[in-house]
Design goal:
heterodimer; A: mainly alpha; B: alpha/beta; five-stranded antiparallel β-sheet; 9 helices
Chain lengths: 326, 254
Amino acid sequence: MSTLITSPSRAVIIAVFFVLLAGFPQLNQDFYTELVTRVMIMSIFAISLDLLLGYTGLISFGHAGWFGMGAYVFALLGTKYQLTSNLWLTLPAAMLVTAFFSFLVGLFVLRTRGMFFIMVTLAFAQIFYFLFHDVKALGGSSDGMNLRGKPTTAIGNWVPFELTDTNTLYYFVMVLMAALLLFMALLLRSPFGRALQGIRENEHRMEAIGFPVFRYKLAAFTISGAFAGLAGYLFAILNSSVNPEMLSWHQSADGLLMLILGGMGQLWGGVIGAFTFMLLQEVLSTFTKQWHLWLGIAIVLIVLFLPGGMISIFERIKGIWKRRFA
Amino acid sequence: MNTNLLMQTVDLCRTFGGLAANDRVNISLRRGEVHALLGPNGAGKSTLINLLSGDIRATSGQVIYRGDDITSLSPHERSLIGIGRSYQKTNIFPGFTVTENCRLAAQSREPRSGHIFSDAAAWSLYREAVDDALTHVGLADVADRRAGELSHGQQRQLELAIVLATRPDVLLLDEPLAGMGHEESLRMIELLRGLVASHAILLVEHDMDAVFSIANMLTVMVNGRVLMTGTPEQVRASQEVQEAYLGSEETHHG
């Protein structure tokens, strides 16, 4: 079980990572700044999925439903109905709406287990996909919607920052990702977080020692949905557009792949997985049209040789280090 | 009414398909008493424990706890009102440390699930319950080991420690000595002796020597029915029991 800072070397690695990340936009390569922004958004998505997959033992195959829903909340509020584009209203709205629907859907899907749970979560995501694909009132269209602009950040007359600036958006996403990591670290060592991990480890015994397992799972499902909604919201801002593909099962599968690549049930697994997955994609697609093939091969190799995900590299290095010098 | 009476069943029935696994079972569990369930395989002992713990639902009849009908309560609700059970097949959290196994159990009494920014490991009420349980079963030395790495006997002890950490009043113990060595068995029996005064204990156990050494009350089941309930002396003296159960055991061995 993770505590906040498990070792000095870990603290150093995390510090270096954030220093590099914070320095990166200063290179003024807008294309790459946006790429890393996208990677950080996918990290948030992967971390939110990990709360279910890695910590509660729930394999959701419909996580993109919440991702897309968060994006559409902003598109509908800011562009379609033009009610408000204010960040401080639309961001909480995106999270609350996805939390609310996650809760409702969770009431049904969490009564199923294993294979059925995978299928039912997929089915609900497909329902949402077709709602945003076909229902005109929800901006339904296969092309999606181009957004009128980024969220405004004004509080009264005061404008603290402008999300239209590439670097500012980058830092905004970075801070949210860091905040989510901190939130998760605290959550996972709290009684609630421990109980979730107990459910992953042995659900039957958790019930027998007095835990209302269903309620715990529902809370996890709701929180997880809200953070996926946050990721989708940020993704819509970055692209200045939304489309139903954000809710497609491909998007759900990408999240699962990132966690498998990075390492499930590891706080940083989602981040490492998102970076690995998206950078592989980026690099391979500049070399060849058949990059899907090579991405597949790379994933197979990583899973084969690092079954614990990329994050297990750190453990291996530590192991080698100890054998050499201790 | 006897104030030590904690739990009883009234004509409890459970059928699986056409088979009556439990047929009008009446049994009473009192504080200060070890009540052992005897019977050949398939007699319905595990079914009865599962009915008492809520792991399976009764087809008809009632489960009464402190005067309340709890027949429709779920396992976690029964655990919360003081009914703890252990499992025949070790049912622990193998990936967690011994301490964490017990802490989870203690945590259910005081969930603090709203305190999402507090460290569960630092909460003293949990620590006390964990220390108590581990000292009781004799696992304090291996508190930081991963449960999955323990020996079989130690895992059996942990199985019981998890139950104790929930601070139950009723203990439903499904073959706590299964697969234990002689020394470990003796230890466990001593441990149960120490628990009798403050708990009502239902014991399912195949080790006859152990059963007759600590049980105050015996219920013999055959084919889902209660054949007789009585003190060890009464049961030993019963011709009916000899024929139905103890006798057949002896002929097997002989």
